[in-house]
Structure formats: structure tokens, C-alpha cells
Design brief:
The protein is built from four helices and 13 strands. By secondary structure, it is an alpha/beta fold. The longest helix is centred in the middle third of the chain and has 11 residues.
Length: about 220
């Protein structure tokens, strides 16, 4: 079972060729319920202070008997953080965050950095927005990540929080072999798939792995 978390970014796009299937769970954070409604997705829980959700969307959720958990407006966490905490508490192992990019820069940057939360270590967590997916690779011993796609897809590797040490790649036009990507430098931007898969290894640090699908009508990432 996968858990989809739908945020309330006004610029969020539905994931390309990816939607909840039978048995999956959808948690909407505030205005995320509006996105889910537009995308035709079911909502199994609505959580947040509801300060950005229209009365019509609230009424639609109530009519669909969606459980609603209202949070106070004065709080330390964002609505998306509350939704993420709920998903983790429910034991979710595969989490797909949607509708969390674009709009205010402070919001989308905070949403990106949620991937670094310690309680997500060991879980399959991804941001999916339009034709892009974003994952965080943690340098625990010899960590690696395999991505499925098509030749011509773009892959960018961006260190966060410090340098990314021991980065190696396979299946890309510009390979890296046990190299360091330095914080603040853009060397890892816009690499290119040369076939149906690419792999990234990381020995130390944190690395944002941003995959942009350039063709095809199917999202080939493995979200099983």
C-alpha cells in the first residue's frame, strides 16, 4: 500500500501517469483536498487548519464522509508536516508527496527539506510533481538508488547540508566515479539517461536526486 500526501501549493501539478490505486491511501493537507478533488482522487483523511480551503471544498469533503482533523492556526508545524506525521504514525513505508512545489519559495523549499526528516530514513519517499520526481539519497555506508526511465530523461544531483562525498553513477551520459559534489556548486545538474535505467551511489552526505521524464506516457519509476 502506498500513501499519497497532497499538499496545497497553488502551482502544484498532478503527477504524470501516476495516481492512487485500489488499496492506496490519500491524505490531503488543507488546500490539498482541492487538488485531489480536481484530479479525481479519493481522500481518506483531510488534515490542517483549513485556512486555505474554500467552503465548497469543505462541503464536498463532508458530503463524501471524509474524516476531517482540524488543527489550530497557531502551530509549529505546517499542514503538510501534520499529514506526514500522520502517515508515519500509520506505518506508511511508501510515501508520495504531491502538490508541494511551486508558489511561495519558503513553502516549497520547506517541503523539499521534509525529505531529510530522520523518521523517514529507510522509507521509500518521493515528491512527484508533473513530470518530475525528487528523492533524497542518504550517505549511509554505501547507499544507492536505481531509477527507471527512458533515454533522454534528465537527472540532477544536488548536495544539501554539506558536500556529497563518494558519488558514483551508472547509466548516465556524464558519469561520476567516487567523486565529491560540493555544496553550492551546480556540477550535478542536467545529466542525461542513456538507457532505461540509471543508478546513483553515495558514501557520505545528503543528495537530492531530481528525475525529469522527457517522453512517454507512462511514469516508469517504481512506486510499488
Amino acid at each position: 500500500m502506498r500513501t499519497f500526501l497532497v499538499g496545497g501549493s497553488p502551482a502544484g501539478h498532478a503527477p504524470h501517469a501516476l495516481a492512487p490505486a485500489a488499496g492506496d491511501r490519500v491524505i490531503a493537507a488543507d488546500h490539498g483536498a482541492h487538488h485531489a478533488r480536481l484530479w479525481g482522487w479519493p481522500v481518506h483523511l483531510l488534515i490542517g487548519d483549513l485556512d486555505s480551503l474554500s467552503p465548497a471544498d469543505v462541503a464536498a469533503a463532508e458530503a463524501a464522509a471524509v474524516p476531517i482533523r482540524i488543527a489550530p492556526r497557531a502551530k509549529d508545524e505546517t499542514d503538510l508536516e501534520l499529514a506526514l506525521a500522520e502517515a508515519v504514525a500509520q506505518g506508511a513505508e511508501t510515501l508520495i508527496l504531491c502538490g508541494v512545489l511551486g508558489g511561495r519559495s519558503d513553502h516549497w523549499l520547506a517541503n523539499l527539506l521534509l525529505l531529510a526528516r530522520p523518521e523517514l530514513r529507510g522509507k521509500d519517499v518521493c515528491i512527484a510533481d508533473g513530470r518530475e520526481t525528487i528523492r533524497l539519497l542518504r550517505g549511509d555506508a554505501a547507499s544507492s538508488l536505481t531509477l527507471s526511465g527512458t533515454a533522454g530523461d534528465l537527472l540532477s544531483l544536488l548536495p544539501i547540508g554539506g558536500d556529497a562525498v563518494g558519488v558514483s553513477t551508472a547509466g548516465l551520459a556524464y558519469p561520476l566515479a567516487d567523486e565529491t559534489l560540493f555544496l553550492g556548486q551546480a556540477r550535478g545538474v542536467s545529466n542525461v539517461f542513456v538507457g532505461p535505467a540509471a543508478r546513483v551511489w553515495l558514501r557520505q552526505g545528503l543528495l537530492m536526486v531530481i528525475h525529469r521524464f522527457t517522453g512517454g506516457e507512462t511514469c516508469l519509476e517504481d512506486f510499488s
